[in-house]
Specification:
heterodimer, A: mainly alpha, two-stranded antiparallel sheet, B: 18 helices
Chain lengths: ~375, ~525
């Protein structure tokens, strides 16, 4: 089956969104658990409970992050080029923080020393907290536009040293987005810990879900108001046919207040996303407090899907607006790869993603059940 | 103009992060299969010692795997962070195998590896074996896809440059996947990984035999490593990577540089065993030659010639001149003259566009290049010979040495007198680093040998960078080196600790330190 170029470009926008949501639900859950590790686990055994809830699955979950990176490379090479180099320092911080996780999980419990273990616990915390904060900050900057432009040969350029450019990235709106992202993933991780542990760890996790859910809710609503009245959005004025060969320099873009809300008047159905975000978080908190962690996990996944989709939809069709030269902005229509590559990658996803989901599910069912302090003590030499 | 220091730092950072990552990859590629062999034996025979072997070598595998994942994270994003023009220019082709690697291989490997470590009590024997097998399959598939991507950098087939989108676009995915260079690289790299893992297992097993500890465990482990290693080392040497070097101009240039072959060797080409390549004089001095050998290695025949650097540079010069024309036509197309005549003229010369871009190192617009600059660009098309000449020879020497060592190990193991041959056991123990030296040098030969190109004959490396500053790069390079070095020290510390402890670290109560009460330190 040959799909139209225009349709494929749109499908790929949805697929990248799906991969990001998949990343939040799986790897985000592990990062959230990492954010809570030093706080819901007071004693070493309790911390090992948290680590072993995540232990068998964190590596597979992290592949959502890696595959999202690879998929952006294959589907939107121009965005992969401009975004990861434009956010150079932020990306380095994310990577350096993530370094702690693979080695942290495997090495932490191989040595008895409490100092060694405590050091790795904070490493695992950093490996969750820094990325979950920065992903939000990155979205906050995308919504405000990124200071880059493309030259005539389509090479992305930025202003000055990116080391210096780190500070403007951390502006108030972006920080708010960072807080939303951090709180949302921590809430999600808390729900997961509540579901998979018992006793003190579960009780503390439940408490964390309430606090983090509350912060997410307030932050998300505040962010919505800010987007509507506080920051300018971007709007395409003219552009080539949607199925034209991608050329990011062939369109006109204006910067206008409230432009990020266009989608909700053009396609009112899009309002489903922020509603899912708001109600998803609220219901998650209620379910968690009622001790229904299983259902809460479903609603917190929905809530995150809603929040991420809100950001993506509001920017539609932009994927990386340029604040330096708005006409250099990248959209899903002009940053994509060729018709053939999009087709091949579409089929690769259609074939492999369901297989991945099936065997991932099998792994979870085999490892299902609550992880307890007793079990950790019994399997002290084989567990993480 | 090009800031050469910035380009060099970008390259240095990529080489550093890739070489660090490649310290851990080969062991993972091979050790997973060794674990499959050990665990299959356990499932078939039911002998517990094979389960203990799987668990113990699995522990060492885990220590290595964790840091492999850590250093691998960087690689997925480094094209975007540091090679953004590369990412734009070839992402349409290069991104696809990378994304498929994630979907098909990383997910498989990483989803099951957790169950390998933590699923022993939750899974039936055959289920656990299946988990181990899928981890091995996943890690090897990831090697396949990354080498498909890398093979395309060396021989960019199945793609065409498009002036409208200003990038390379895929036209034939099958040609990219089934590229002969990619396939040769895959076989060569994974079998080198298998040799690495075999040398690792045999070296550590020899240590136990030297100490007279856990002999049954050590001998069985050695046998598995030895059988697997013998097959693998033969595979590496017989199916060397060179088979691809006669394809394409850049590959020919690499081969000529590796061989210090300044003058075309007529068939049957002789192989220079040692000598001093001198790029200034364009001569390899003090050369010791073996007749026929190069022709056999490079072309698998005695009647094909192997092209020398002089001739390659002469060919390049023609292509640089064509490339100037191609670049002029590209500028015309980009500025709006899209008449059929201009398009057709560009199509005729666009295969040489990359050679025109080589001039951008010296002039903003290739059309302004002087005669001297054109000649210099043509000379640039061949990488410096000496580093490749020596890297290649040391790599091959390592390979031949390991073949001899493994053959000796195999012979005495068959005669069941291995444990008495202390000299050989010591040789195995101290030879553990040899496969790593060979693997790192193999990377150098392949990627340094690709210079001056990021994508052979298409995109020069100096144009492929991001628009960062030298300060940005110094910051990141120092950060990577610090992080990686500290993590490497921790990894080595754990590796030595658990290798010394041996199977006693499993706490089964059956092994040396538990039965002799001599544990140097209570194992976790």
């Amino acid at each position: 089956m040959i799909l139209d170029y225009e349709i494929l470009k749109f499908i790929w926008w949805a697929l990248v969104g799906t991969l990001l949501i998949g990343f939040a639900i799986t790897d985000g859950m592990d990062m959230g658990a990492g954010n809570l590790l030093p706080f819901v686990g007071k004693k070493d055994e309790e911390r090992r409970v948290v680590i072993n809830v995540v232990g068998p699955h964190w590596d597979g979950n992290q592949v959502w992050f890696i595959t999202a990176g690879g998929a952006i490379f294959a589907a939107w090479p121009a965005a992969y080029a401009a975004a990861f180099s434009g956010f150079y320092m932020a990306m380095l911080l994310v990577l350096f923080a993530l370094f702690f996780r693979p080695v942290g999980f495997d090495y932490r419990s191989k040595i008895e020393s409490p100092k060694w273990r405590k050091a790795w616990d904070w490493g695992l915390f950093a490996g969750g907290a820094i990325p979950s904060l920065i992903f939000g900050v990155a979205f906050g900057n995308l919504l405000q536009g990124v200071p880059f432009y493309l030259d005539e040969f389509l090479k992305p350029h930025y202003q000055g040293s990116l080391l210096m450019a780190l500070l403007p990235l951390l502006n108030p709106f972006a920080l708010l987005c960072g807080v939303i992202s951090f709180a949302m993933l921590t809430m999600h991780g808390g729900v997961w810990l509540q579901l998979r542990t018992e006793g003190e760890v579960a009780t503390r996790s439940k408490k964390a879900v309430t606090i983090m859910g509350f912060i997410t809710l307030i932050g998300f609503i505040l962010g919505g108001v800010w987007v509507a009245y506080g920051i300018d959005g971007y709007r395409v004025i003219t552009q080539p046919a949607l199925d034209a060969l991608p050329n990011p320099l062939a369109k006109q873009v204006e910067v206008a207040p409230g432009a990020w809300l266009d989608i909700y008047s053009n396609y009112p159905v899009a309002i489903v996303a922020p509603i899912a975000g708001i109600f998803g978080v609220a219901i998650t908190v209620l379910l968690s407090r009622a001790g229904r962690a299983g259902f809460a996990f479903v609603t917190s996944s929905l809530a995150m899907a809603g929040i991420i989709a809100t950001a993506g939809l509001s920017m539609f069709p932009f994927i990386m607006p340029s604040s330096l030269k708005p006409d250099s902005s990248l959209t899903l229509w002009d940053a994509s790869s060729s018709h053939l590559t999009l087709t091949i990658m579409f089929w690769a996803v259609v074939i492999f993603l369901p297989i991945v989901l099936l065997y991932t599910l099998w792994c979870y069912t085999r490892m299902w059940g609550k992880v307890t302090v007793e079990e950790i003590e019994r399997r002290a030499h084989m567990a993480y | 103009m090009i800031d050469q220091l910035f380009v060099d730092l970008s390259r240095l950072q990529f080489a550093t992060t890739a070489l660090y990552h490649f310290l851990f990859v080969p062991l993972t590629l091979g050790l997973t299969w060794i674990l499959v062999i050990m665990e299959s034996t356990y499932v078939i025979t039911g002998k517990e010692i094979y389960r203990d072997m799987t668990k113990f070598w699995g522990k060492l595998f885990g220590i290595n795997f964790a840091i492999g994942v850590t250093t691998g994270l960087t690689m997925e994003f480094e094209f975007g962070t540091n090679w953004s023009y590369y990412s734009h220019y070839v992402g349409d082709v290069f991104g696809a195998p990378l994304a498929i690697e994630g979907l098909m291989a990383f997910f498989l490997e990483s989803t099951f590896v957790g169950l390998f470590f933590l699923g022993w009590e939750r899974l039936s024997k055959t289920q656990h074996l299946m988990v181990t097998f899928l981890t091995a399959l996943g890690s090897n598939l990831s090697a396949l896809w990354i080498l498909v991507a890398n093979g395309w950098m060396q021989l960019p087939i199945g793609a065409e440059f498009s002036a409208e989108t200003m990038r390379m676009e895929m036209v034939d995915f099958a040609a990219v996947v089934f590229s002969p260079v990619a396939q040769a690289k895959f076989i060569h790299t994974v079998s080198a990984g298998y040799v690495t893992a075999s040398m690792f297992v045999m070296g550590i097993s020899s240590y136990y035999m030297l100490k007279g500890r856990d002999l049954g465990f050590a001998k069985r482990s050695f046998s598995v490593g030895c059988g697997f290693g013998l097959a693998a080392v033969l595979c590496v040497i017989v199916l060397g990577d060179e088979s691809g070097y006669t394809l394409g101009h850049a590959q020919e240039a690499k081969l000529a540089a590796i061989e210090g072959e300044y003058h075309t060797e007529e068939a049957p080409a002789a192989f220079t065993l040692v000598g001093m390549p001198n790029d200034e004089k364009m001569e390899t001095e003090y050369a010791v030659k073996i007749p026929y050998a190069l022709g056999l290695i490079a072309t698998r025949s005695v009647n094909e010639e192997v092209k020398g650097i002089h001739d390659i540079v002469a060919e390049s010069e023609v292509r640089v001149r064509n490339g100037i024309i191609a670049h002029n036509l590209l500028l015309k197309l980009r500025s709006g003259d899209t008449s059929e005549a201009t398009k057709a003229a560009f199509e005729d010369v666009k295969q040489d566009l990359g050679f025109g871009l080589l001039l951008k190192r010296y002039v903003e617009n290739p059309a302004d290049a002087t005669e001297e600059q054109i000649k210099q660009a043509a000379r640039d098309s061949v990488p410096p010979s000496a580093p490749l000449f020596w890297s290649f020879r040391i790599m091959v020497a390592c390979g031949v040495y390991m073949l001899a060592l493994i053959l000796a190990g195999f012979y005495f193991n068959m005669k069941r007198t291995l444990a008495e041959k202390k000299w050989l056991l010591r040789l195995f123990l101290y030879s553990i680093p040899v496969p790593w030296i060979a693997a790192e040098l193999g990377w150098v030969v392949a990627e340094y040998g690709r210079q001056p190109w990021a994508i052979a004959e298409v995109l020069p490396t100096f144009l492929a960078t991001s628009s960062l500053t030298t300060g940005d790069l110094i910051f990141s390079l120092v950060g990577f080196v610090l992080f990686y070095t500290i993590l490497l020290i921790i990894e080595m510390f754990l590796m030595f600790k658990f290798a010394r402890l041996g199977p006693s670290s499993l706490h089964t109560g059956k092994y040396y330190h538990e039965t002799h009460n001599t544990a140097p330190q209570a194992a976790e």
